[in-house]
């Protein structure tokens, strides 16, 4: 059996934040902030949340299912929705039972 070396490419721009996320959060990514909500383009009865990920560029922002975000970060997600109680936010809050 030979000893393998970990791959390291000095040209990759790995930030300290990325190292911290990898070292301390092997179950997922850290949400930096919620940016927007929308109806799913493929399933109009579902909602999606635009997420900015900590340690990543704006290009890496992604739309994630609102029900999954509600399961993973219920307090922060409810605070975001309740801080924006008009229009589509009020509709989502009612449908998800955040407000009645």
UniProtKB/TrEMBL annotation:
Coiled-coil segments: none
Transmembrane segments: none
Domain (Chromo): residue spans on this chain: 29-80
Top-rank taxon: Eukaryota
Xref: InterPro entries: Chromo-like_dom_sf, Chromo/chromo_shadow_dom
Name of the protein in its database record: Chromo domain-containing protein
Organism: Spongospora subterranea
Biological classification of the source: Eukaryota, Sar, Rhizaria, Endomyxa, Phytomyxea
């Amino acid at each position: 059996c030979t000893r393998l070396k970990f791959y390291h490419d000095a040209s990759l721009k790995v930030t300290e934040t990325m190292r911290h996320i990898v070292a301390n959060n092997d179950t997922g990514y850290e949400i930096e902030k919620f940016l927007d909500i929308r109806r799913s383009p493929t399933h109009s009865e579902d909602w999606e949340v635009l997420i900015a990920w900590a340690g990543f560029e704006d290009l890496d922002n992604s739309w994630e299912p609102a029900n999954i975000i509600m399961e993973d970060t219920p307090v922060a997600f409810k605070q975001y929705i309740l801080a924006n109680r008009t229009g589509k936010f009020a509709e989502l809050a009612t449908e998800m039972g955040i407000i009645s």
